[in-house]
Design goal:
By secondary structure, the chain is α/β, with parallel strands linked by helices. The protein is 50% helix and 9% strand. The protein is built from 18 helices and seven strands. β2, α1 and β3 form a beta-alpha-beta unit. The termini are far apart.
Amino acid sequence: MSETPPNTLQYRFDGPEDAPVLILGPSLGTTWHMWDRQVPELAQQWRVFRFDLPGHGGAPARPAGSVAELAARLLATLDALGVQRFGYAGCALGGAIGIELALRHPARMASLALVAASPRFGTADEFRQRGVVVRTNGLDPIARSAPDRWFTGGFAAAQPAITEWAVQMVRTTDPGCYIAACEALAAFDVRPELGRVGVPTLVLVGSDDQVTGPAEARTLVAGIHDARLAVVPGASHLVPVEQPAAVTDLLVHHFSTAWQQPFDTGQTVLPAAAPAAVVPAAQPQAAPVAEIAPAAVPARPEGAPDRYRTGLKIRREVLGDAHVDRTLAQTDAFSGDFQQFVTRYSWGEVWDRPGLDRRTRSCITLTALVAGGHLEELASHTRAALRNGLTPDEIKEVLLHTAVYCGVPAANSAFRVAQQVIREETTPAG
């Protein structure tokens, strides 16, 4: 284990000293031991570097209030060791650090794996509220609820030792550093920048993850040009702990086949002794099948606009994040191509054209939906019309106009749908 000077991180190495460096980044509330079951196999090919977040795992309690600061401390640690180029796999907050490195320091990174990660973690209010809970009650409430967030119910029941290990890991974290990390996640939002991630990327997620699940994973894959998706069945948020064999196999495959440039053998790294792993041993379990899916966004000619990225941005602006997230969460292999088509051509092509403003496009869309009898879509587009600047009175005039040209029965049904939406959207919360 390292001695940790200011502005660096506590770390350890495993594996051959002359091998390329592969960094494993931890999740909020965890230590480097969350990766213990991946290390034996990874260390056969790579010099595995793990680090602890500030105040986690006995690391010095020097809070870092942003993901950028955490990435800077990691780079300072690597600089002191002579490590210039590396592969990186990070879970949740560790994944956010990986995205930050790929965006701001692309020359340093050879390949990237994002585990249970997201370009934006929930809402800022959610994480700030978690900070309020910690300030008021300490970390015990967060620690006791950690297994529910991190593991499936079946795993938690079958592995009480690992469940208790998880609780104690959070409980022994420094509260001030935990709060600072929550603030870092609250401020993290790189959705507009994902297209600039230029390294081969594996996006890996547990099928039952309720924190950063398949919807968030698909957003990453949609935004990062050279990305692949792997969904691990039977796993929740802390998927490297819950399904270690599947995660290890996926990481080995990815970093063996998607290392962007040859390793610079002129680098020097300092070995660091470390204590043995402390994660309790689990009973052997069958490794689930989790295949790396093809890239969701096909290659485009150099210099051509990224219509999917543009479309996803406009779709979120018009329909709202909650609606789009729900739709993406329901997307599977059967409906994925259709969602790609809608996002790319409807939102990225037509809605992005400069000839009409969004208010006018909303008027046209409402009319077309009434004419076609598509009431299931009318509610979401009524909300979109309000978001695009139409007033309730203007929406009323559009629907009155449809009564003449689309028929009174169609307009009657449309008024019922729009009336309910407008009441919901314009009535102050009690």
